[in-house]
């Protein structure tokens, strides 16, 4: 699906520049990523050493901004590769007056260049693109290649939480986590009918729930 062009994108991006982390990608092949490191100084960026929470594929920022508002003792880094979508998330954070959130316009593959190993306490994957065709499964954010990235980034007691409306992606994720060194917890096949507390409803989640679709959720921790 082609995204609509965002009006005044560059001007809006500039107005949110204090919330967006700047970076320069070196020219290299992706399989050479281990040879490049340009770590962000997160303590300097946020002005404190609080735990870092990462959302990959933050969309318009409903989850990330609400999480940051509810958890002022944590720092939130929201990642999104679509510029026109990310700018709306930045504007939401601005309007809410949040100081503990930053945004990164980037594909998840490049995160190990900029985030130190064991620097992330929680990773959230909310309604990621399911890529249903078998030939595109390597693009799913719970493919084993991404799980290896998350293992590197997570601290010793860190965890991943995933939510999706897509049963196929959820079943793929259950298998992928289990086969690649993760233990699964708090699995729900219909989140809104469960006793799970503290759920933050995303834009997509509200839409799907109103249509009567079940929301799938899991948590995964690396097996040490």
Structure characterization notes:
It is built from 8 helices and 7 strands. 33% of the residues are buried. The chain is globular, with a radius of gyration of 17 Å. Helix 3 (62-70) packs parallel to helix 4 (83-96). The mean pLDDT is 93. It has one domain: 3-Layer(aba) Sandwich (Rossmann fold), CATH 3.40.50. Helix 3 (62-70) links the parallel strand 1 and strand 2 (75-80). With 224 residues, it is of the alpha/beta class.
Could you list some keywords that capture this structure?
31% helix; 7-stranded mixed beta sheet; 7 strands; alpha/beta; 8 helices; 224 residues; Rossmann fold
Q: Indicate the percent of residues in helices.
A: 25-40%
Say what the CATH topology is: Rossmann fold
User: What is the count of β-strands?
Assistant: 7
Approximately how much beta-strand content do the residues carry?
15-25%
Number of domains: 1
**Overall geometric form:** globular
In short:
The longest helix has 14 residues, at 83-96. It is built from 8 helices and 7 strands; from the N terminus they run ααβαβαβαβαβαβαβ.
Task: Give me the secondary-structure topology.
Layout: H1 9-15, H2 42-46, E1 52-56, H3 62-70, E2 75-80, H4 83-96, E3 101-105, H5 111-114, E4 120-126, H6 144-153, E5 154-164, H7 167-179, E6 182-188, H8 203-210, E7 216-222
Parallel strand pairs: 1-2, 1-4, 2-3, 4-5
Antiparallel strand pairs: 5-7, 6-7
Helix pairs in contact: 3-4
